[in-house]
Amino acid sequence: MTVETFPTPIVAPGPTLFERFAPGAWRVFLVLIVVAVLLIFIGPVAILMVTSIRPPSGIYYIWRGSEFTLQNYVEVLQQPQILHAMFNSFVMATLATVVSLGVTVGSGYMLSRVTGRIQKTWFATIYVFRTVPYISFVLPLYLVTTNLRIYDTYLGLLLPHIAVHVCFFSWLMKGFFDSINPSMEHAALIDGCTRWGAFRRVALPSAMPGIAALSILSWLWTWNEFLFALILTGQRTPMITSTMAQFVTETGTEWNLMSATAVLAMLPALLVTIFGQKYVIRGLRM
Question: For 39, 48, 128, 253, which has the most beta carbons within 10 A of its beta carbon?
Answer without folding.
Answer: 48
